[in-house]
Amino acid sequence: MTDTAPSRPRRILLKLSGEALLGGAECGIDADLLARLAEDIAACARAGTELALVIGGGNIFRGAKLAARGMDRVTGDHIGMLATVINALAMQDALERLGQPARVLSALAMNQVCEDYTRRGALAHLAQGRVVMLAGGTGNPFFTTDSAASLRAVEVGADLLVKATMVDGIYSADPKLHPDAVFYPRITYDRALRERLAVMDLTAIVLCRDNGIPLRVMSIFEPEALLRVAAGEDIGSLVEPGTES
Ligand code: UDP
User: 148: Cβ below 6 Å to ligand 1?
Assistant: First the structure.
């Protein structure tokens, strides 16, 4: 397997699971978890890593779940995308309270609450040392925020996609249901596809693979994990575009 992960990534696209933002809260966002994540993100930005964030919305709404209860799927997905804007605004606020400049750019136009997403706008903010939150998913129904994260990672030229989620890496099966599941510290996108591992959805995986962007999957609950990844540490699982040797 060829090593494509940069030792110290210059620009990271960080995907935060919306569902994980629930933390210990019954609904919405766990304020302590949000504050701790904002501290890690701000410390990382201060240390010189450029950071673009895509935050999910599963802590508030998911279109597919609403559709299963009879709602029109497109309307459900619009609600899901709006949920991602709520999360992004909360993170912007948490970062700014720490003195870290941040901007929300939304794929859905709502310029009374945040800027519209343009690639040029995102790149300009990153060059100014601002953390950018790329909200509203891809702006299209029937996609996920994992796909949005992969798409934006390619667009802004991230050299690493980091997925911070409920589990600490990639396993052969769901470790909560299968305690004997095998942990994969390193794997290729092709193998993840072949073994149908729950890494990201197909669109997201293929976009990263075909554009040569490595993915690190790690726990959202582990303090300072992001700082360690930005410093080049090998934590969680790494998915690489290269072929297996
Ligand atoms: N969504 C969408 N298009 C996108 C991204 C997201 O329609 O490009 C909607 C979809 O309904 C999804 C919801 O927004 O279920 C929340 O995103 P996601 O489920 O990916 O969040 P996470 O799993 O990270 O909590």
Answer: yes
